[in-house]
Specification:
Blueprint lengths: L3 E9 L7 E4 L5 E5 L8 H9 L11 H5 E10 L2 E8 L1 H7 L4 E6 L5 H4 L8 H12 L5 E2 L7 E2 L1 H4 L4 E2 L1 H4 L12 H14 L5 H50 L11 H12 L3 H6 L7 H36 L3 H23 L5 H15 L7 H58 L7 H14 L6 H19 L9 E4 L4 E5 L6 E3 L6 H22 L6 E5 L19 H20 L5 E6 L3 H4 L6 E3 L15 H5 L1
Parallel strand pairs: 3-14, 3-15, 9-13, 13-14
Antiparallel strand pairs: 1-2, 1-4, 4-5, 5-6, 7-8, 10-11, 11-12
Helix pairs in contact: 9-15, 9-16, 12-15, 13-14, 17-18, 18-19
């Protein structure tokens, strides 16, 4: 797109001083040459600042200290515009709108237009550059992204600063920044007009849809895995229900898919717990049966106690029936008699004669007592013991029966509790299981439908043709530049140059080649080739390019004398480099503008002087000309 630089303007802080204008010619090779530290390199950063750069790369020091604002005059076909912007420091101090956009025409002098107030902001300037300069529609880099492809992405093709022009690893301005390089790589076919806007927009949409689809497929896979685990858990719980006697309940069936889960959920929503419990038959209510058993158990326990005591007494009686008569007498009387005699001996002095006689009579009676147990009594005792033992056995059996009945009732009560817990567990498992809770299938179907509606044309062959044309231009340009590698190609993947060596079919990245002269020759040749192609196709980038110090590899400082002379070894290479720029400008019929900022002087490229516009008509050197006028420094 035709857009070239007419002027760079510096507005002094001291308003009594004259404005500084650096004037360029469109459709020509413009050269500013001279010493270091005269402000040559600041030209790129000033132009970029005025063209809405978000980062102030203008060097701190003299340039910022002396200037209140900077300006650039753009030539767009038959229109001219002034973009003026406050310096980074002034912008912070004034906290005001920082831009001024002014159309220029013959009815008002440029000097008068320079006085325009700062009434525009960054957004309005970017809008102008996008829609008026490059006529780029609002195409977003990513779907639902606030960023968009615009003028600022295309300036990568307009600047070759010192750190880039001979860099083997970074080819374009700002391409050393990963995010910017990625954006530029995606948009490069669009910028070169290999691809149209609609196709590019559809590709962006497709990339966005593919990202969403990938995310949803991942989520779907995770949910499927989770669902299988959930189904297994539900089936384990259902199996527990069957073991509780619920095998005849119609909704208890194996779960294998989401529809089975939904069916089970609906059944649980409609479930009556009483009906579920009643589906298991019980003889009578558990509570009344348990009370009856407890009463029977109490009676049986009382019988057991009585029979046990009776049995103990009978066995004791039987024990004594087996003793001799004398032993029986001792058992029956001697113990009592001995105790009474002991008492008599202690109380003898205190008792009357009559009492003492009575006691002796009782003692004598005990001494004369005969055995009280005979054979027939012993048999009766044995029979009675057998009867009581039988009764105890029956009592124990009844106790065991009662215990078994109570345990059975307790199990039945436990089953009801287990059924209750089963219901809690199955409900929790079912309600937590939702294999498609977010409608993933519907979303995937919708994405597929959107993708099918996108009409994306392949640009593979178009790119091959375009890059072949650019490669052809670059190889023709590099041929006279004395590079070891003149078989160069555009590296679309790296946004750089790749080379072939000799008869090899292998490509090597520029970073794997040696020598600064090879690197700078590749930069010059490929950037000029891209601009030539872009001008032919009215591509979406401005038709100017600025090179800063490309002779640095030919022109080491130690060989430079006070007049700017360099060794004869580098003169031929630098002259050929300038000649390649002039030839490309001519081949585009002035459609390209080149601005060269360098040390090399007329003693190097003087033979081409007629085809060059020398900015300021003299070098920036010593105490003479520079970007910042001497008068500004003195003030």
């Amino acid at each position: 797109m035709y857009c070239q630089i007419e002027k760079v303007i510096l507005f002094p802080k001291n308003e009594k001083l004259p404005i500084r204008e650096v004037v360029f010619k469109t459709g020509k090779v413009n050269i500013i040459y001279g010493d270091s530290q005269t402000g040559k390199s600041a030209i790129i950063s000033i132009i970029d600042w005025c063209l809405a750069s978000s980062k102030p790369r203008i060097p701190i020091g003299v340039v910022r200290d002396c200037c209140k604002a900077f300006g650039v005059v753009l030539k767009l076909q038959d229109q001219r515009f002034l973009i003026k912007r406050l310096t980074p420091d002034e912008k912070i101090q004034l906290d005001a709108r920082e831009f001024s956009l002014t159309p220029l025409d013959d009815s008002v002098s440029d000097t008068e237009s320079y006085q325009a107030e700062f009434t525009d902001d960054m957004a309005s300037i970017k809008k102008f550059l996008n829609e008026e300069v490059l006529q780029i529609p609002n195409i977003k880099i990513k779907e639902n992204d606030s960023n968009r492809i615009g003028f600022r992405d295309t300036v990568a093709l307009n600047y070759q600063p010192q750190n880039i022009v001979a860099n083997p690893s970074s080819f374009f301005y700002k391409s050393d920044e990963n995010k910017y390089r990625s954006t530029l790589a995606n948009a490069f076919p669009l910028i070169l007009k290999i691809e149209d806007f609609e196709n590019y927009q559809n590709k962006i949409k497709l990339e966005s849809l593919n990202r969403i689809e990938k995310y949803l497929l991942k989520m779907e896979g995770e949910l499927k895995g989770d669902a299988l685990k959930a189904y297994a858990k539900i089936n384990d719980i259902l199996h527990r229900g069957i073991s509780l006697g619920l095998d005849k309940v119609d909704w208890i069936a194996r779960v294998e898919k989401s529809s089975d889960v939904k069916k089970l959920r609906n059944a649980l929503d409609d479930l009556n717990f009483s009906d579920l419990v009643n589906s298991i038959s019980f003889d009578e209510t558990i509570a009344s049966r348990m009370l009856s058993l407890q009463q029977e158990d109490a009676q049986n326990t009382e019988k057991h106690f009585q029979s046990t005591n009776e049995l103990r007494y009978l066995k004791q009686l039987l024990k004594h029936s087996d003793k001799s008569i004398s032993e029986s007498i001792e058992f029956e009387s001697l113990e009592i008699a001995s105790e009474m005699l002991a008492i008599l001996s202690e109380l003898k002095g205190d008792l009357s004669d009559t009492t003492q006689r009575e006691l002796h009579n009782i003692s004598d009676a005990y001494q004369a007592k005969k055995p009280v147990v005979n054979i027939s009594v012993k048999e009766d005792i044995n029979n009675k013991i057998s009867t009581v033992e039988g009764e105890l056995r029956n009592i124990n059996k009844e106790a065991q029966r009662l215990l078994a009945e109570q345990n059975k009732l307790l199990n039945e009560q436990s089953k009801v509790d287990k059924i209750m817990q089963f219901l809690v567990d199955i409900k929790n498992a079912v309600y937590r299981c939702d294999g498609d809770s977010n409608g993933i299938k519907e979303k995937l179907d919708n994405i597929l439908s959107q993708k099918n509606k996108l009409n994306i044309k392949s640009i593979y062959h178009l790119k091959k043709i375009a890059y072949a044309i650019i490669d052809g231009y670059a190889q023709a340009i590099i041929a006279p530049l004395n590079s070891e590698y003149d078989d160069i190609y555009f590296d679309e993947k790296r946004l750089s140059v790749k080379v072939k060596k000799g008869d090899s079919d292998d490509f090597f990245p520029l970073s794997e080649t040696g020598s600064g002269s090879n690197w700078v020759a590749s930069h010059i040749a490929m950037t000029l080739a891209i601009h030539r192609y872009g001008i032919d196709k009215k591509a979406l980038f401005s038709s100017f390019i600025i090179y800063d110090q490309p002779s640095q590899v030919y022109y080491p400082h130690e060989t430079e004398d006070s007049k700017g002379n360099i060794s004869q070894k580098g003169v031929k290479e630098v002259s050929a480099m300038v000649k390649s720029m002039i030839d490309t400008v001519k081949e585009t019929n002035g459609g390209l503008q080149v601005i060269l900022l360098d040390h090399a002087g007329e003693n190097v490229w003087g033979e081409h002087k007629d085809d060059i516009h020398l900015v300021d008509s003299k070098p920036w050197r010593g105490k003479g000309q520079a970007l910042i006028p001497r008068a500004w420094l003195k003030s």
